UniProtKB/TrEMBL annotation:
Keywords: Hydrolase, Protease, Thiol protease
InterPro entries named among the record's database cross-references: NLP_P60_dom (IPR000064), Papain-like_cys_pep_sf (IPR038765)
Keyword Protease among UniProt keywords: yes
Species, as recorded: Haloferula chungangensis
Domain NlpC/P60 stretches: 68-101
Domain of life, source organism: Bacteria
Pfam families registered for this protein in UniProt: NLPC_P60
Protein name per Swiss-Prot or TrEMBL: NlpC/P60 family protein
SUPFAM superfamilies: Cysteine proteinases
Chain segments annotated as coiled-coil in the UniProt record: none
Family: Belongs to the peptidase C40 family.
Length: 171
């Protein structure tokens, strides 16, 4: 771990106690397709609902570009357009390409991203050491534990308990 990463982790440890005011997920994160409301997954690529906001469509397009990239610890941080991504690098890439943030941040930075709670179109799920997101109801994740396979769309239900929910303002 380099000095910058250590400093970011140290600062995030000071921020985490304020998570008491955060809104925590209480349920599993599940995909349930609803025509016109959720993204459709076809052959590994997501398609936005016709009436989704443009930022949501851009986020889905960005996440589609990361399909098939491997999991790479630190990927997407030193190089914004990398050959592999970790969880926070992938979420940062999607939000940046959608025009919803600048630069990138480690997973702990997402405790303070956007607004508290679940979003209508995009929700960020963050806990110490991991972050993933849903876009138009479809989960975009790098996996967790021993199942870190790289950024991809996933329809399998995953635990949400222990994650704080955040969302981009207005979405």
């Amino acid at each position: 771990m380099n000095r910058r990463d250590w400093l970011l982790l140290s600062v995030s440890a000071l921020v985490l106690p304020s998570c008491g005011r955060q809104i925590k997920a209480r349920h599993e994160v599940s995909y349930n397709f609803q025509h016109g409301e959720t993204a459709k997954l076809i052959d590994g690529l997501a398609y936005a609902p016709k009436d989704a906001p443009m930022a949501v469509k851009r986020a889905i397009q960005a996440a589609n570009r990361l399909q098939g990239k491997p999991y790479k610890w630190g990927g997407g941080h030193a190089r914004l357009n990398d050959d592999g991504y970790d969880c926070s690098g992938a979420v940062s890439y999607v939000l940046r390409e959608a025009g919803l943030m600048q630069g990138q941040m480690p997973s702990s930075g997402f405790f303070n991203y956007g607004k508290r709670g679940e979003g209508r179109w995009i929700t960020i799920y963050v806990r110490p050491g991991h972050v993933f997101m849903t876009i138009a109801g479809l989960r975009f994740d790098t996996g967790w534990g021993a199942n870190r396979t790289g950024p991809k769309w996933l329809t399998k239900t995953r635990p949400g308990k222990g994650h704080v929910m955040r969302h981009p303002s207005g979405l």
